[in-house]
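sry for the spam today, last one i promise. C-alpha cells for design, 229 residues
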C-alpha cells in the first residue's frame, strides 16, 4: 500500500504518491546565485534569485521527511571543456567566458568553488547529484536511468533559473512521460516577468507541460491527507 496525496494545484489537482515521486532541484550553485559566477558575468542581478533559497530548502526537508527520492543537478563542464559546445562557449559578449578564472575559480567548471551548491542546499547522503553540460538535465546524463531504476513516475521541480534549466528539464521530463509539478516559490528567475510567463505556460492548455503550486499546498496535502491505495 502506498500513500496518495492530492495537491490543490493549477490547472487542476495533482495526485501523487511520495513513494514514486522525486524532487529535482535544479542548479542551486554559487555560479548562479552568488556574485562573481556565471550568472553575474552574463550581466544578471543575482540577488533576484535569493528569495527561493529558503523555500527550496524547506521543499527538500519536506521531501526527506516523506521519503521522496532527491536529485540535485548542477550545470558544469569538464576542465578541458570537451563537453562544452563552441556555440555555448562563444554565445553573447560576457565579461568572462566559461572556463575563465573568476573569484570563485574557473567559471562553470565542475569541481571549482563556483560550481558547488550554495551552503543551504547541499546534497545529503543517499541523494543523487547529476552534473549536466546542458540546460536540460536529461541531455547527456544518467538521470533517466536513475529514475527508472526507482520506479519514479512523478517529479516535483525547484531551482534556478525558472525559464532556462528548470523549464528545459521539465519539458524534457514531460516528453518522457513524467507527471511534473513546478513548486512556484522554490524557483526563481533573474527576470520576474519570465518566471510568471513560465508558470502560465506550463499550466496552460490543460497543463500542457504539467502543474504548478506553492510549497504550502504540498505541505497542506501531506498534513491533512494520507489515504492509502
Ligand atoms: C542558465 C540555468 N540560466 N541553470 N542556467 O544558464 O538556468
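last one done:
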Amino acid at each position: 500500500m502506498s500513500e496518495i496525496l492530492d495537491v490543490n494545484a493549477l490547472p487542476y489537482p495533482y495526485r501523487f504518491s511520495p513513494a514514486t515521486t522525486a524532487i529535482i532541484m535544479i542548479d542551486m550553485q554559487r555560479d548562479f546565485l552568488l556574485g562573481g559566477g556565471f550568472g553575474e558575468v552574463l550581466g544578471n542581478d543575482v540577488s533576484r534569485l535569493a528569495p527561493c533559497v529558503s523555500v527550496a530548502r524547506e521543499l527538500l526537508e519536506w521531501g526527506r521527511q516523506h521519503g521522496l527520492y532527491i536529485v540535485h543537478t548542477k550545470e558544469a563542464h569538464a576542465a578541458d571543456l570537451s563537453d562544452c559546445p563552441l556555440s555555448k562557449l562563444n554565445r553573447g559578449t560576457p565579461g568572462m567566458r566559461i572556463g575563465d578564472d573568476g573569484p570563485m575559480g574557473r567559471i562553470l567548471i565542475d569541481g571549482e568553488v563556483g560550481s558547488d551548491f550554495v551552503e543551504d542546499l547541499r546534497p545529503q547522503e543517499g541523494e543523487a547529484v547529476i552534473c549536466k553540460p546542458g540546460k536540460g538535465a536529461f541531455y547527456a546524463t544518467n538521470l533517466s536511468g536513475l529514475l527508472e531504476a526507482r520506479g519514479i513516475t512523478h517529479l516535483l521541480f525547484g531551482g534556478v533559473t525558472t525559464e532556462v534549466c528548470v523549464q528545459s528539464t521539465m519539458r524534457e521530463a514531460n516528453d518522457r512521460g513524467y507527471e511534473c509539478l513546478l513548486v512556484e516559490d522554490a524557483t526563481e528567475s533573474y527576470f520576474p516577468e519570465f518566471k510568471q510567463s513560465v508558470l502560465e505556460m506550463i499550466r496552460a492548455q490543460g497543463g500542457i507541460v504539467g502543474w504548478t503550486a506553492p510549497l504550502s499546498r504540498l505541505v497542506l496535502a501531506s498534513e491533512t491527507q494520507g489515504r492509502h491505495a
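Residues 192-207 form the longest helix (16 residues). ok im logging off now
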